[in-house]
Amino acid sequence: MSFFFDILQTAYSNAYSSGLKKQYTEPKIYHGGKNFDLSKRWYVYYSYAHPELIGKNGNPVMVRQPPITMSINKNYKTKQERLFHLGIVSEVLLELLKEGSSPYKGEMELNNQSLEYTSVAALDYALDLKNSTLSETSKPDYRSRCNQFKKYLKKKNLADKSILSITREVVNTYLEGIVKASSARNRNNTRIVLSALFGELDDSRIIPRNFIETIKVLDTKSVSHDTYPLKVLETLFAFMKEKDPLLLLFVKFVSYNFLRPIEVCRLQLKDIVLSQKLLTVHTKNKKKGKKTKIIPNIVIDEIKNFDFSAQEDFLFTPTGVGKWDAKETSRRDYFTTRFRKLKNQYNKHLTSQGKALQLGREYTVYSFRHTFITMLFRKLREDFSYTETCDKLMLITGHSTLKALKEYLKDIDAELPKDYSGLFVP
């Protein structure tokens, strides 16, 4: 045991001598003296260890840094206002110091505009910036969640305060209220939106850092999109071919091109180059732009006789190729509902044949993507290693990273072990 403590002591001594000594004094507010003299210059002050000056005791010399006023003396004329805003500056400065920022590294620029931006103005500014990178699907969601947060700030009398008054605690309390009122999933989605907006403010140097990134994501149960039993696919496709050929073609784009339903809804004739058997798919995030994917012959044969003269027409509308003046989310919901109705007919068909199997709500249009990726993965695994299979599959599915693909394969249980009965034999 003494040997262990000797090691611990040595490690602590080395770490302490390497820089764990406090490098700064805690920021304080000079408020014009005991009488809070408003005619004097109020400011935040602190000291920081100079990186090149060493005192007689061997420690860095603590040097008083320039006072920070952030135009507060000019903009605020009452004791309460000055204390409030200088308090914010002091708290932000302390957080920066705790995170290792140093005034000698040029890392501690506290933007003078930060206190001039009210919470609402800063959020509106961030939303305007973010809109340029959002898809049409995401814009309404961002706007709605931003507006809800602004309403909350108004209730808490923070809407007209500086954006720096919106602390981690304020956001956390807001998110906790969402969990209680609705669900963890809704709370997580709001966290994503607020973090994106505060990220824009961070990039613009209006706030010192995006603290929302440090707020944890709550566990939620994922929406279930179960893989279809293979024995069902043939009869289900045959049923769709008879009852709704257009819906079957929609499903084939999901199944064979591994597109998400909403990506299929975005397809216009101009996105398809028949001569090269290519299509351009618009991804969810505009920063990622577009992806080009091959169209397998099994799909080419279905569309090669289409009239491609009206390039702006959508590939899928309720009646086939044509114009459709509806939001893409509405178009997706239409085909989702259309499939659900057909699935109910299919279940009745199975019942009439005396079959017990029924397709529940967990079997969706999206499920076809899981099913056919699983089929392709297992087919490739017959001839290739896991790594080789993933490399080949990544080119087909369109996953942006190998890590994302592996996580996806894990989630859908694409790879299963061989029979392990022999392991139980003594």
Overview of the molecule:
With 426 residues, this protein is mainly α. It contains 15 helices and seven strands. Helix 8 packs antiparallel against helix 9 and helix 9 crosses helix 13. The radius of gyration is 30 Å and the shape is elongated. 23% of the residues are buried.
Structural shape: elongated
Mean pLDDT across the residues is 84
Q: Write out the strand line-up for the largest beta sheet, numbering strands in chain order.
A: 5-6-7
Rg over CA atoms: 30 Å
Detail the poorly predicted runs.
1-5, 10-20
DSSP helix fraction = 40-55%
Q: Would you tell me the structural class of the helices and strands?
A: mainly alpha
Order of helices and strands, N to C?
Answer: HEEEEHHHHHHHHHEEEHHHHH
Give a topology summary.
Layout: H1 2-20, E1 28-30, E2 43-45, E3 47-54, E4 60-64, H2 72-75, H3 79-98, H4 119-131, H5 138-155, H6 168-181, H7 184-203, H8 230-243, H9 245-256, H10 261-266, E5 272-273, E6 278-282, E7 290-294, H11 297-303, H12 328-352, H13 365-381, H14 386-397, H15 402-411
Helix pairs in contact: 4-5, 4-7, 6-7, 8-9, 9-13, 13-14
